Amino acid sequence: MFGKSGRRKSDQRPAAVRRMERQSFIGCVVIAFAYWLVQAPVCFEAISGKDQAPSDYNTPFAGEAFFGLFAIHAIFVAVRYRRIVRLARTAGYDLCPNCMYRLTGLPTEHTCPECGNMYEKDDATRRWREWVDRANRNAPPE
Questions:
Q1: Closest by alpha carbon to 38, among 5, 15, 61, 7?
Q2: How far apart are CA 30 and CA 47, in angstroms?
Q3: CA 75, 78, 83 angle in degrees (round to 5)?
Q4: What's the confidence (pLDDT) of residue 27?
Q5: What pLDDT score does 2 carry?
Q6: What pLDDT does residue 1 have?
Q7: Residue in 140, 134, 141, 139 with CA at minimum distance from that of residue 13
Q8: How far apart are the first and last CA of the chain?
Q9: Would you tell me how many other CB atoms lie within 10 Å of the CB of residue 83?
């Protein structure tokens, strides 16, 4: 059920990918929270039943602005994914799982010269290949 790293065997994504996905999720949460802060007075006024119209507190076009932020964030994440996939393919999936440093020409088991983490080339290559295959399951070939 669990591998050497203590993670589920089904979650053997490279650490660089997990870190990028976590950053993307945090970005979405921050945008959603900011939107809630802008729209909260409208909701509270509507619930309280005061005479003042809730739209008096509403920032004009706030929904559109935050939708735009979500769209820009989604495009940024898609471009990052595409760059990582392209880097993995051009390097022959021979990348450090932690920092994406090219391991071409380095020993099969050693520490990464970029980040200092231990790696096994075969394991790193397998993890990158599996992740790229999963990430591009429905994508057209390049």
A1: 61
A2: 25
A3: 125
A4: 87
A5: 44
A6: 42
A7: 134
A8: 35
A9: 11
What does the pLDDT profile of the chain (142 residues) look like in tens digits? 445 555 555 567 788 888 888 888 888 888 888 888 877 776 666 666 665 555 555 556 677 778 888 888 889 888 888 888 888 889 888 988 888 899 888 888 888 898 888 988 888 889 888 888 887 776 555 5
| Token reading at 104 | 């071409």
Residues 6 or more apart in contact with residue 48 via CB below 8 angstroms: none
Measured at the CA of 13, the angle between CA 91 and CA 118, to 5 degrees, comes to: 70
Mapped onto helix, strand or coil, the DSSP state of residue 11 is coil
Q: Yes or no: say if 14 and 124 are a contact pair by the CB < 8 Å rule.
A: yes
Token pair in block for residue 129? 């290949």
For tokens 């993670």, what's the residue? 7
**Tokens 């993995």 found at:** 88
Report how far residue 16's alpha carbon sits from residue 32's, in angstroms, rounded to the nearest whole number.
25
φ, ψ dihedrals at 107, nearest 5°: -60, 160
